[in-house]
């Protein structure tokens, strides 16, 4: 099993007396209400999903990540992890003070303020996403950020209440689980869609080289038209039940708001799965991309800048169904004309489903389609 | 906040000139744009390989975790 990124799993979940004291102290602290996205980040920071980060980035870390794609320690890190707050909230605070972070009115965490700093939103967007185009959802999100950024460690006090707790494992848990299953090598699979046959073939092809596959859907706010979280989970359950060996697959969720930062986010996704204990990570076409902002294989090329990542990417070209081969295959294996190919276009499948049309079984398992159709509105 | 040219924190190291020339030849036609970026790449690769394996969890953690995994049906 690979070491966690930076060598050690972070654990900043308060327990016992420490937690009780923190709850009492929170009354006297400046209160900040956080968004869904930041609440997920806090949970991930505290549970070691973002190891070695222990809190939100200070300006030195942010500069380093934006310009070098590395933390000041030279460790690979590509996505800014930030919290912002209204300036009025922090005017009275000094570095070293604690803040109470609330989510939906409930106490979530405390933060040890290290630094409050201004940052240019455009600069942040330009480096993270490679564009300033507001039609990019990540850019639009960053442009809306107001107030001041806060750097400092966080301690989780109360678990955020979520619907999918039974599917939520932290890195310590997945690491024990992989060990219990006897897996020496594990490939991580990132997803935000119910599986079509192309996904299944990618996973099963990877499975030829490793002991287990770790399906890790991202749960959280999505774009309009994306599938709802419960639909994705139920669809995968149906697929695994009928088409996977129990010994070789595990699924748990990752609460996280997609940034759609393409190549940078691909590296970040790999780091997160390394923390969960994966040795390998699948990168397909346009990983974590959106629209036409990134080249189809940019998210694969970027890995050559990170020989020290500590998790091996597995690169895949797109799979398709070939009528001549009468099989799901890919461009390395099938010699036939493109006219014979049926592509697994997510957009096409979504359109079929939203029009009540059952996708052909060459594209999607009937059990998966059935789950999707059991929901009157499977889309966000 | 650091000045623009200080943002990228770099320093110089010395290597023998013949080695420099050899590396320069070696990286022609590869994705590497400079000897410096190649040297940084190689060093990072070597240092990452040398990192020691560390057991990230104790037996006590393990038993507690296994209990939850069992309750959730992840293990029997
Ligand atoms: Zn063919």
Helices and strands in order, then pairings?
The complex is a heterodimer of chains A (380) and B (76).
Chain A: H1 16-26, E1 30-33, H2 36-47, E2 55-56, H3 59-68, E3 83-85, H4 87-90, E4 98-103, E5 106-117, H5 121-129, H6 137-144, E6 148-156, H7 171-180, E7 186-191, H8 197-207, E8 212-219, H9 229-243, E9 249-251, E10 254-255, H10 263-276, E11 280-283, H11 298-301, E12 312-315, E13 319-322, E14 327-330, E15 341-343, H12 346-354, H13 366-373
Parallel strand pairs in A: 1-4, 7-8, 7-11, 8-9, 8-10, 11-12
Antiparallel strand pairs in A: 2-6, 3-6, 4-5, 5-6, 13-14, 13-15
Chain B: H1 4-7, H2 17-26, H3 35-50, H4 59-71
The complex binds zinc ion (ZN).
Largest sheet entry of chain B? none
Give the % helix of chain A: 25-40%
CATH H-level superfamily of the largest domain in chain A: HUPs
CATH architecture of the largest domain in chain A: 3-Layer(aba) Sandwich
Looking at how many chains there are and whether they match, the oligomeric state comes to heterodimer
| Radius of gyration of chain B from CA coordinates | 23 Å
* Global morphology of chain A: globular
Q: What is the overall pLDDT average of chain A?
A: 94
Inertia-based shape of chain B: elongated
For the largest beta-sheet of chain A, the strand count, sense and barrel status come to: 6 strands, mixed
The number of helical runs of chain B is 4
What Rg of chain A is obtained from the alpha carbons, in whole angstroms? 21 Å
- Ranges of chain A where pLDDT stays below 50 over 5 or more residues in a row are none
């Amino acid at each position: 099993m690979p070491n966690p990124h930076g060598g050690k799993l972070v654990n900043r979940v308060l327990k016992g007396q420490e937690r009780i004291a923190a709850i009492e102290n929170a009354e006297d602290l400046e209160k900040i209400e956080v968004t869904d996205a930041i609440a997920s980040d806090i949970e991930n920071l505290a549970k070691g999903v973002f190891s070695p980060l222990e809190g939100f980035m200070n300006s030195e870390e942010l500069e380093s990540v934006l310009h070098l794609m590395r933390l000041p320690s030279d460790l690979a890190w590509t996505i800014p992890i930030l919290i912002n707050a209204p300036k009025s909230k922090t005017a009275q605070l000094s570095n070293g003070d604690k803040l109470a972070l609330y989510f939906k009115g409930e106490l979530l965490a405390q933060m040890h303020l290290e630094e409050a700093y201004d940052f240019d939103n455009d600069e942040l967007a330009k480096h993270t996403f490679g564009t300033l185009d507001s039609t990019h959802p990540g850019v639009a999100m960053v442009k809306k950020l107001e107030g001041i950024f806060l750097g400092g460690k966080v301690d989780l006090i109360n678990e955020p209440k979520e619907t999918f707790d039974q599917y939520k494992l932290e890195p310590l848990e997945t690491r024990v689980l992989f060990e219990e299953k006897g897996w020496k090598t594990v490939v991580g699979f990132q997803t935000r869609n119910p599986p079509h046959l192309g996904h299944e073939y990618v996973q099963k092809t990877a499975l030829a080289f490793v002991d287990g596959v770790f399906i890790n859907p991202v749960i959280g706010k999505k774009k309009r038209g994306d599938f709802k979280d419960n639909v994705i989970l139920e669809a995968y359950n149906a697929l695994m039940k009928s088409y996977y060996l129990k010994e070789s697959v595990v699924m748990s969720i990752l609460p996280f708001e997609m940034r759609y930062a393409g190549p940078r986010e691909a590296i970040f996704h790999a780091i997160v799965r390394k923390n969960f204990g994966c040795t390998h990570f699948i990168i397909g076409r346009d990983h974590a991309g959106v629209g036409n902002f990134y080249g189809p294989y940019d998210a694969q090329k970027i890995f050559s800048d990170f020989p020290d990542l500590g998790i091996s990417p597995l690169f895949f070209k797109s799979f398709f169904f070939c009528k001549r081969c009468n099989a799901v295959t890919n461009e390395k294996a099938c010699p036939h004309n493109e006219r014979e190919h049926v592509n697994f276009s997510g957009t096409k499948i979504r359109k079929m489903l939203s029009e009540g049309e059952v996708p052909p079984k060459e594209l999607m398992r009937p059990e998966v389609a059935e789950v999707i159709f059991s929901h009157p509105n499977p889309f966000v | 906040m650091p000045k623009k040219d200080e943002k990228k924190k770099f320093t110089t190291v010395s290597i023998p000139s013949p080695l420099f020339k050899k590396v320069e030849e070696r990286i022609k036609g590869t994705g590497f744009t400079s000897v410096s970026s190649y040297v940084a790449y190689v060093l990072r690769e070597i240092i990452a390989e040398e990192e020691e394996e560390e057991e990230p969890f104790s037996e006590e953690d393990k038993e507690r975790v296994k209990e939850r995994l069992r309750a959730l049906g992840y293990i029997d």
